[in-house]
Write a structure and sequence with these properties.
CATH superfamily: Response regulator
Mean pLDDT: 93
Strand order of the largest sheet: 2-1-3-4-5
CATH class: Alpha Beta
Number of helices: 5
Low-confidence stretches: none
Shape: globular
Number of strands: 5
Length: 124
Amino acid sequence: MTKILLVEDHEELWDFLSRRLRRRGFDVVLAHDGQQGVDMAGAERPDVILLDMNLPVMDGWTAARTLRGNPDTARIPIIALTAHAMSGDRDRILEAGCDDYHPKPVDFPQLLAQIEAAMLAAES
């Protein structure tokens, strides 16, 4: 079963996404701030990380860089979840270490396609 680490601090969104992902057969583990996300990535070794960029304790930018700097988590695909969808934001997100980004509000079918693409890329 594919394990997804969802790092999101807004309860409505993590509740919505975790329920829908579980119904699709994913094992979902949750973290509610960036530091907890980094810690759980090392402990849980998820197949994909969905990372909000605006988080308490440690923001998603720092969390992505931290994950990429750790050999144990460096190869886990990261999809940024962000309300930052302005020109240049995509490049900044990718430079921070994310593999892809998904603008909020979440388009669930598109997010599923991005998760699948990230997993395929990680396998090759």
